[in-house]
Write a structure and sequence with these properties.
Chain A: Pfam families: BPD_transp_1. Chain A: It is found in: Cell membrane. The complex is a heterodimer of chains A (285) and B (307). Chain A contains 14 helices and 2 strands. In chain A, strand 1 and strand 2 form a beta hairpin. Chain A has 2 domains: 68 residues, no CATH class; 202 residues, MetI-like (MetI-like fold, Orthogonal Bundle), CATH 1.10.3720. Chain A starts with 5 loop residues before the first helix and ends in a 7-residue tail after the last helix. With 285 residues, chain A is mainly α. Chain A has a two-stranded antiparallel sheet with strand order 1-2. Chain B has a two-stranded antiparallel sheet with strand order 1-2. Classes of the chains: A mainly alpha (285), B mainly alpha (307). At the A-B interface, helix 1, helix 4, helix 5, helix 6 and helix 7 of A face helix 1, helix 3, helix 4, helix 5 and helix 6 of B.
Amino acid sequence: METTSTLEKTLRLIALTLVVIFFMFPIFWIFLMSFQTNETILAIPPSIIFTPTLSNYAALITGKLTTAAGTLDIAFMRNLGNSIFLSVTSVALALVLGVPAAYAFARHKFKGSEDIAFTLLSFRFAPPLLVLLPLTQYFQWLGLSDTYFGLIWVYQLICLPLILWIVRGYFEDISADVEYAYRIAGHSWFATFRKIALPLAGPGIAAAGLLAFIFAWNNFVFALVLASADKQPVTVGALAFVTSSGIQYGQIASAIVLSVTPTLALALYAQRYLVEGLSLGAVKG
Amino acid sequence: MASTATLRKPASGFRISRKMLPYVLSLPALLVCIGILIPFITAVIYSFQRYRLSQPWARQFNWGENYLNFFTDPAFWNTLKVSLLYAGITVTLELLLGLGIALLLQRRSTVNNFISIMLLLPLMIAPALAALMWKLMTNPSFGILSYLASLIGLHDFRWASSPSTALLTVVLVDIWVYTPFIMILLLAGLRSLPTQPFEAAALDGVPRTFVFFRITLPMLTPYILTATLFRLLDSIQQFDIIYAMTQGGPGNTLTVFQVEAYLNFFQSTNVGRSAALMVILWAITYFLSNIFIKNWLRLRERARGEA
């Protein structure tokens, strides 16, 4: 880098500035919009100088939207609650099911283990609607349509492969000798798993759980097909809200801000693990 | 390894034979997923049936008719064309942009690390919500992008609501959301490359373009392939951004595979055609994912080896 000329430095700086503007501006702009009234939003030319208002957030939180045509009920907080409930329970279930399975795949090369692991991974790449459309009919027969239980089950398609493959990698990184030594000392298989393997893979399990949470939260198509209005998460709810509220742009912006804040916060918190998680353990961050 | 050791009886009671243990551990995860295989098979069966929700009495096997009809069906060729075009354009642009940004941020410094973390944020926003954000920004009456377009002389630029620019607009949203994915994978790849070849080339005074094309790029190829295939698999199945932005419109401008199948199922209630579309998409992704998994495994082993 000693040979870097001033011209090159300047060009790099310009390129990086453009990149940062392109990727950051939409977030910044929607954030500003969420504190604006419709009047300032509709002003031409657009300005970043305005008197901020919390009225958009207040309308969403109280669930009452006052328009010229009267008061409109909005269920956005319910959507937010659904998102939290669906994501948390789906990830919890996926961890309970996936961590032992990941341990089995990492420690025991049993017959067909690779085939099974790959079948589970292939779910990550299959077109979701292929399965979802017939599933709507099965759900009707089973009485699972529009239930949280049914949704959480389908969400395993997102969470399980992710947890299985990431956590498996972390278990493989733990030396088997450590566990073997503990076993020799007379401890049971389960005690070894609980006292040695789980704590050592702890950070990996936490990272996989956070990523699975982000993916579950961001999912759109599963709930669009399988859930009705009162079970919908924010991704589907926000779209419905746009259609129903029409021109309440400030509220739409604040609904978006509330919907993306949890995943953005988690991503910043766990960014160290993101590279490894997103590539399913193929690239170390 | 502990394979010959017999399992001691745990203090708390029950006993699982050593051989059965891995099956017992992975069984619950498997059972949950096997439930998914049933609708998959059902979808394949539907694709060989004449099946409309509006005429359930007329449901019968018509064997390959749904597929044969595609040959003379302009809507199908449009779906295939738009899907391939969308996937081709987004992945190519994201790869070039992602590689460029990764190279800009390659040197480890506080500023570069901070920027690379910031650039992750769009990737963490739900694609459906990202589409809504861009919808607000491209709104004809107040959208900031419509305003900026008018400043450079593009008055009444319709973005996603005009057939001529709809593809461009959704591609732009896709690039905004997914370029960071390619960028962070390639950045991690670049930073994990061995330093010796570069030091040797610097000592010999090798020109930088030569270093880039003959050393950096070849060594980065496995990472580029993994990132590209990963994106290609997702991009050819894109639904969220397109549906949230335009629901496949205007007209049939953006009816990619999954959007077309969704509309066929819920609007025209043509289950047979919808299932046949999904089976074709599945065949494409199956083919791609086999190439992907082979390449990805090699990379994963390398990562494990270096860890």
